[in-house]
Amino acid sequence: MAEVINMPRLSDTMEEGTVAKWLKKVGDKIEEGDILAEIETDKATMEFESFHEGTLLHIGIAEGDGAPVDTLLAIIGEKGEDISSLLNGNKETSKSKVEPQEETNNKTQESSGKSDANISNEIPEGVEIVKMPRLSDTMEEGTVATWLKKVGDEVEEGDILAEIETDKATMEFESFYSGQLLYIGIQEGESAPVDEVLAVIGPAGTDVDAVLNAKPASKAETGNLAAAQNTTAKETHSDVKEEKPLNSGQRVFVSPLARKIAEEKGINLIAVKGSGDHGRIVKRDVENFVPSEEVVAPAQVTEAKISAQSLASIPQIIPTGEEHFEEVKNSQMRKVIAKRLSESKFTAPHYYLMIEVDMDNAITSREKINGLPDTKVSFNDMVVKASAMALKKHPQVNTTWNGDTTRYNQHIHVGVAVAVDDGLVVPVLKFTDQMSLTQIGASVKDLAGRARIKKLTPAEMDGSTFTVSNLGMFGILEFTSIINQPNSAILSVGAIIEKPVVKNGQIVVGNTMKISLACDHRTVDGATGAQFLQTLRAYLENPVTMLA
Questions:
Q1: Shared-domain flag, residues 360 and 274
Q2: Dihedral in degrees, nearest 10, Cα atoms 430, 432, 436, 441
Q3: 28 is catalytic
Q4: How confident is the model at residue 310 (pLDDT cuts 50, 70, 90)?
Q5: Which of these is catalytic: 12, 82, 195, 525?
Q6: Which carries the bigger pLDDT value, residue 177 or residue 532?
Q7: Among 42, 161, 351, 415, which has the minimal tally of Cβ within 10 Å of its Cβ?
């Protein structure tokens, strides 16, 4: 009998996986223990082996595609076996979830049909519903900062109706219609999504309630309406006041507001390119207009020549190019990093403490240790060791917030943040306080190496009680990190720099390193965090104490 294999949960935080590579294809013979595919989780790319024998009859998720845990991944069974019932079973399950909603919608439509019977299907002629405009490419909603017109005011095409605050700026919104302002749908200070009813403009005495309750037109009616609006638009443009520029017989279609601004600035509208409907010149076109060679009157020729001569001496460099971008699909690791760090930042009240450590003795001690045969430790190894020892003296920092309780971890597992191509992972050194410097160095090197090729197991990345993040090797002097929950703190380590320092009242050359501690204020008070850093500094400035 055929066996259905679903997307497995390969880590405790995994919600979906991506098939990085199929190692078997449909029709291949499968033995128990064979590797079916490599699956990318939120933490690593892992080999997924089969627990069944038979022939691979179906692949449900193609290479490069992602899917939630428990989604159909593959089917294994006897060669030639009919699996249509298994495939259809999935579809019927999905369909059954949809049908109740559709039935509800149908009932709603039937019941609403009765109540809509008395509502007019059409918006009266001459009445326009003005909606919240999309004033920027990223705008999803807008806020009415100020209404410049009130209900009952006469509105002319081009008049400024309101100032609307978008996600980028506060902008004036002008009317494209003439009539009386009959209704304001969004009050000053209120926000609403794009396309929400902003106002209604039309003849005085119009029944506004009937307009707002009018049913949407059908597709056929919409098409007819669009055609009618195009015709109306053409007629409207023919009615717009025309301006004949100097020495030109051309006609210019321009909004009243744009015409007024142009007159105030002395701009010849024949030189302005309109961006409105059918090439109509609107306010923004006049405000953004940059004069080049304007058409001038004979009386202005002399002045224009002088101006042109002065401009000719200035090199005009206009940058040109093509805007382009590339969208890259986020990996499972990147999506989970974003989710986990957002949860930590917005749930744990972070605060930060920073100290500067004298590293002269640490440099000398490291040189002596690395002078021994087959021994290699880094400054980061020394920081990890010092952190583990400081945690033993300050158990409040080695805690986890659990809402009603605080968990005091009796063991010390230090996580070390490692940068990988898709983001970062945090392999964990278990019982770090019991490890020597050389053991820490060898373990970090092994874990970091396997992390970069995505060969860590979930168990090697789980269970940290404290985390160390080091960007000193990149020349970063100081920084702060987001807590790696469920930890209560994370240590950020900067670069060691050579600089003048004061020792025994004398200015001498010294080596210092800045470290900062991000703490969860729910579990670690400021004084506790400060005492932890003092202990940590004592170990780093006197490394021999870590060997006792």
A1: no
A2: 70
A3: no
A4: low
A5: 525
A6: 532
A7: 351
CA atoms within 13 A of residue 450's CA, in its CB half-sphere: 17
Q: Are 447 and 456 in contact (CB under 8 A)?
A: yes
Tell whether 62 is covered by a domain: yes
Measured distance CA(9)–CA(428) in Å, rounded: 21
Q: Are 478 and 493 in contact (CB under 8 A)?
A: no
Residue 191's CATH number: 2.40.50.100
Q: 360-370 and 379-393 helices cross at what angle (nearest 10)?
A: 110
Determine the average pLDDT of the residues in 6-16: 77
Residue 304 falls within a domain, yes or no?
A: no
Q: What is the pLDDT, as a whole number, of residue 173?
A: 85
Based on the domain organization, do 368 and 438 belong to the same domain? yes
Token digits for 537?
Answer: 């500094």
Name, in order, each residue with C-beta under 8 angstroms of 146's C-beta and a sequence gap of 6 or more.
162, 163, 188
Number of CB atoms found within 10 A of residue 179's CB: 19
521 is catalytic: yes
Contact 252, 243 (CB under 8 A): yes
Mean pLDDT of 195-212: 90
Once rounded to an integer, what is the mean pLDDT over residues 434-456? 92
Residues 408 and 481 in one domain: yes
- Provide the domain limits for residue 243: 224-296
